[in-house]
Amino acid sequence: xxxxxxxIKDAVAYITLNRPEKFNAFNRSMALELQAVLDECNTDKxxxxxxxxxxxxxxxxxxxxxELIGENAPGFEQILSEHYNPIITKIRTINKPVIAAVxxxxxxxxxxxxxxxxxxxxxxxxxxxxxxSKIGLIPDSGGTFVLPRLIGLQKATALMMLGEKVTAxxxxxxxxxxxxxxxxxxxxxxxxxxxTLAAMPTxxxxxxxxxxxxxxxxxxxxxxxxEDTLQYKAAHTKDYAxxxxxxxxxxxxxxxxx
Length: 258
Ligand code: T3D
Hints:
6-stranded mixed beta sheet, Lyase 2-enoyl-coa Hydratase, Chain  A, domain 2, 2-enoyl-CoA Hydratase, Chain A, domain 1, 2 domains, binds ligand T3D, alpha/beta, 4-stranded mixed beta sheet, about 45% helix
């Protein structure tokens, strides 16, 4: 059974982490398969938005701790440089919106992979745990970069040091995630968001992501310059022409992602 399930439907790529008996914890094979499908999402023009979720009760429990013992265990250096670091870089640089649909617990690298996505939604029974401190590790997978920027240094430090579980409701309240939906509504509502994104001006969204990524390091002057450059590009897309025409003609726009 592949440890990643991948399906393209109506311009959306659905990626499902598929090791439910291990709470979708990452072994090497799953990490490499995820990277391969993320690459496909980036290059396939038929894909206009990405939906990342987990099979079963969990979203992802991070590194498969069972894989770390034994003769052929991958080393720490290999795990970060060949597994998690490329995954985070691919999610952040993929030229389409990536939604994390957190269907259950997200722990360790699983939590930080979710938080690296462009929009994070969660089912009401889901939770987030920076589990690293409990086994003597430091938070990785971009967590120390992203989490303080989402919720502030103080809360991020406490959650990362204490390794406390944060419910989906609390995560929404403190700005860690975009929205929480009741369990019964979660699948429909989260898929509505990704389908909406897939029908929007894809290049405009890609430039938006590029600008937001750069805002993490740029000063105001640099950011204004970048907005200028990217707005120029957006204004030369077919979707911009369609968006303006549709507005003036009082009709629904038909964006094609070009
Ligand atoms: O070199 C490096 O390692 C660097 C890279 C680090 C990246 C990381 O992600 S480090 C952090 C690794 N993850 C964890 O420490 C989380 C460990 N898991 C948990 O704390 C808990 O399982 C959860 C909070 C995620 C869920 O708790 P609960 O009570 O709902 O479920 P459970 O009973 O603990 O787990 C359910 C099953 O999933 C269970 O299997 P079993 O007993 O039914 O056969 C459990 O062993 C398995 N499972 C959960 N997490 C992992 C796992 N199996 C392997 N690895 C896991 N991480």
